[in-house]
Amino acid sequence: MPIARVRDIDICYELAGSGPRLLKIWGTGGDLRRPPNDFDRLLAAHFTVLAFDQRGMGRSGKPARDYTMADYADDAAGLMAALGWDSAAALGYSFGGMVAQQLALRHPARVERLVLMSTTAGGAGGSSYPLHELMELDDEQRVRRFLELADSRRTPQWQRDHAALWQSLVDDGMAMLRLGADDPSQRAGSLRQLGARRGHDTWDRLPGLKMPVSVFAGRYDTVATPDAQRRMAEHIPGAGYREFNGGHLFFVQDPGAAPVIVEALAPAPD
């Protein structure tokens, strides 16, 4: 995959699809070595999608210092500049939604439209679950606990009744953790990402957003609760809000979600 020098790091990125420009900013632990899913392919069918490994993750640089949310936002803006993208729609998921908020606030001219999924504003608006607390668990315990938080329907009884599906979800989560396991700086980068996440707070600045904003949530998400996401949308002038039948990954759980997301990202008709 191509590499761009941005600020103090090399950023690994990929471009897929054709159409209007879309910057996709993904969640905690996001890694371009993860195989694309149906949602990724749908986006590429409608947009030219720019995705990238954020600092500390994947094959991007992992400088040995603390990271800030401003770092992540400025990295995204810097990557756009390096590729000659003056502006684009921005799609932020989970931690990537926090970065997308910071990008839209720090570099508003670069964000034409903003779609936030499974994310929160922090501060007085309410924060997402403190994922750094899960780092005390071993890998499998951490995966299992996150899967429970990601969808409140996954109760112990549900896990017993859907044992094969539950094990498949755990196996997929473990496979994600193994990406980059041979890189000794990967865990340090993950911890620095979680450290930056703890400081996320855009609440007081969100009313200043001028571009069209849509907030989408899964009604069974306990990582980023629907209540916190609804309040975030209400705090942004003119923002839309909608809930779907799923959890933290509602956009792959509810077939009705993806077309709505695509519509919100598309340029307004002339």
Your description of this structure?
This protein is of the alpha/beta class. It has a single domain (3-129, 184-265), classed as 3-Layer(aba) Sandwich (Rossmann fold). Helix content is 39%, strand content 17%. It contains 10 helices and 8 strands. The chain has helices spanning 38-46, 69-82, 95-106, 139-150, 156-161, 163-178, 186-198, 226-235, 250-253, 257-265, and strands at residues 3-6, 9-16, 21-25, 48-52, 88-93, 111-117, 213-218, 240-244. An 8-stranded mixed sheet has the order 1-2-4-3-5-6-7-8, sandwiched between helices. Helix 2 (69-82) crosses helix 3 and helix 4 (139-150) packs across helix 6 (163-178).
- Structure classification: alpha/beta
User: Radius of gyration from the CA trace?
Assistant: 17 Å
Number of DSSP strands?
Answer: 8
Q: Please, how many domains?
A: 1
- CATH structural fold name: Rossmann fold
Look at the structure and name the CATH superfamily. Answer: Alpha/Beta hydrolase fold, catalytic domain
Shape: globular
State mean pLDDT (0 to 100 scale): 96
The share of residues in helices is 25-40%
Are there runs of 5+ residues with pLDDT below 50, and where?
A: none
| Separation of the first and last Cα atoms | 35 Å
Q: In order across it, which strands form the biggest sheet?
A: 1-2-4-3-5-6-7-8
Helical run tally: 10
The CATH architecture assignment turns out to be 3-Layer(aba) Sandwich
